[in-house]
Amino acid sequence: MADLKTEFCIIGKEKDSFIESYAGEPLVPSPNRENFFIVIEILHKFLEGETIAEAITETFRKSFYQTDHADGYTRFEEALKQVNMLVLQLEEEEGIILKNFNVAIGAILNQELFVSQCNDAEIYLIRKGYVSIISEGLSEGYVKPGKELFKNISSGTLEEGDHVLFATGRLIRYISNNDLGRHFYGQKLPEVLHKLDSDLSTEVLGRIGTLAFEFSLLPANLSMGASVKKENITTRTVVHFTRIKKTLASLIDFFNFIPSQSAHHVEAHKVETILEPHNVSKRITRFDFLSNYKEKLENHFSPKSVKIGAGVISIFIILIVAFAITRGAQLSAINQYDDILTNARAQIAKAQSKTNKEEAATLLSNAEESLKPALAAKYVRSEANKILSEIKAIRFQFDEVITVDKPQIVTSIQNISDKGPLQGLLKFDQGLFGYNNQELIEILLDATKTPINLLDTNAILDATILTEDNSAYFMIDNGRILEYSDGLAKFIDSEDAAFKSATAITSFGSRMYLLDNKGKQIWKYSKKRDSFGTAEPFLQSTTLPPSKDIAIDGSIYVLTDNNQILRYFGGKIDNFLIVDAPLVPPQNPTKIFTNEDESFLYILDPTENRVMLYYKNQQTKNIEYVRQYYFPTVNNITAFSPSIDDKKLYVADDETIYVTELK
């Protein structure tokens, strides 16, 4: 919007509402000025306000630029009608309150200004230091339920140097007309709005969004090109075939190949050809009448010059017709994808107004699914990706995601061990330890001790600590169990010939539990003096589905291969509900953790870089989703360990341990 100087400012301090401004112009260059301006405030809708505001703006934009064949008043009126219909639909379906919308809206077509407003919004014209409230009388009080947001339109002609100020509140409550005019007179827009904010911010109740522009006449040889002040609003209009017609005529006149008395005849054929592009190859032959003038042309030019000139004209005609066809197809595709983007934004707006997470999840999934065609289209791919980012952000809001951008680094084992990546974290009485394929490593803040070598061959698969004796037990890939206690490591046996095959291990008191996918069972071993007793089957009259991990707090929780959480008590399945389930459930969780002292159940979902928390409700016996910790900068989280005592959450990747505060 190179010829129109615009500026946006929010006056006031209290953040109890959503406020934003939007300004746009046609995507396709136009000899006319066709700008629109919207400043909008939505009270008590700070989170979902942006989606609603952009849906309103997109609806106005689409109607305004698709009716460019009509006069300015009709275009502006039709666009407002479409916005009214959208808002009434949102009121009916989502329960929005119309009196909470303060919107000032305007459009310029050449020198004509059209404006409308609702509720507290006002629009001011400042001409040579004098202020007029040009929105006065457009509405009567606050919009009532079920009534149209915009009712009346004011219009007039702008002059060089005029300023127009759109405001979501009544600025004249806080500043006189004369003082407002003096602020603008002879001043630059940024300084004007900055001064208004400085003077009024302590007096304004709530906040007022302001959008101002300075009008200047459009130079005769300047065509308006595309720009949009807010990136996620795109403005488009339809190519006028008459422009192509004039271009063709001017080319022919330029080369003086056709006598003036035949120009209209040629023009008519050109328009007919362009309006029916599928017949271009056939209709181009109708330009053969040029040969009728060959003799006359050769009286002025050599035959060679005539042929060259005719060839140049033919090339220009073909290129322009090809451009018209291609551009028409592009704009048709853009309009088609516009509908997809608008529909997706409408779904998002509905989702944000929902209190039921399941309903919101369905709406967001529908919006995401509907964007697939747009993601494959180069014209709107970037816009579709922005909407996908919005969907992700909204899901984060619903799921109480705590983003940990820069977790504190506790230490790294990169320079002290070459025995593979960190596989797990263990909390002994004396502190935190990590283990890899063959070593146990004590973790200190900003330091690590020399690793304790546990194995020379084979590899550790999983580990647990028996709280009764503060000893660690490591499950080895050869089927044996290695005990680490008081600084000594040794293999320990059971009263059976060998331990049952297992893929995960946990413990409770003096008992150790092995998850046996091959035998579809959970085996319980009781600790003896220097060994474990015989294997006892924990599950009764049920079999274990393929599973990844196991945790215990008296009940046993199992994380299955299909990402379900099962609970067993007394050897039998103990059904429960997941209350307030996250919009984005665990995608590929690998570890589960809880114990008898923990109020929460923890799930590690490394593909999403997150640890998810569920509250174990002892009264209802259900588990309730609470929140999740998202680590966008930590790739491939291999292990985690919550610390109840100091309310910290430790996570590890292949070689580094991080920590963050637990809420």
Spell out the key features of this protein.
single chain, 663 residues, alpha+beta, Phosphatase 2c, domain 1, 6-stranded mixed sheet
Describe the protein.
The structure is a single chain. β13 (424-428) and β14 form a beta hairpin. Strands 11, 30, 31, 32, 33 and 34 form a six-stranded mixed β-sheet that branches. A five-stranded antiparallel β-sheet has the order 1-10-9-6-7, covered by helices on one side. Residues 221-294 have low confidence and may be disordered. It is of the alpha+beta class. The chain has three domains: 5-236, Phosphatase 2c, domain 1; 239-398, no CATH class; 408-661, 6 Propeller (Neuraminidase).
Low-confidence stretches: 221-294
With helices defined by DSSP (H or I, 4 residues minimum), what is the helix count?
12
| Beta-strand percent range | 25-35%
Name the CATH superfamily assignment of the largest domain: TolB, C-terminal domain
Instruction: Tell me the helix content.
Output: 25-40%
Radius of gyration: 36 Å
Number of domains: 3
**Largest sheet, described in full?**
6 strands, mixed
Task: For the record, give the distance between the C-alpha atoms at the N and C termini, rounded to a whole number.
Answer: 47 Å
CATH class of the largest domain: Mainly Beta
By DSSP, the count of extended strands is 37
Q: Which architecture of the largest domain per CATH?
A: 6 Propeller
Mean pLDDT over the full residue set: 81
How does the overall form come out from the CA principal axes?
A: elongated
What CATH calls the topology of the largest domain is Neuraminidase
Going by helix content, strand content and strand pairing, the class is alpha+beta
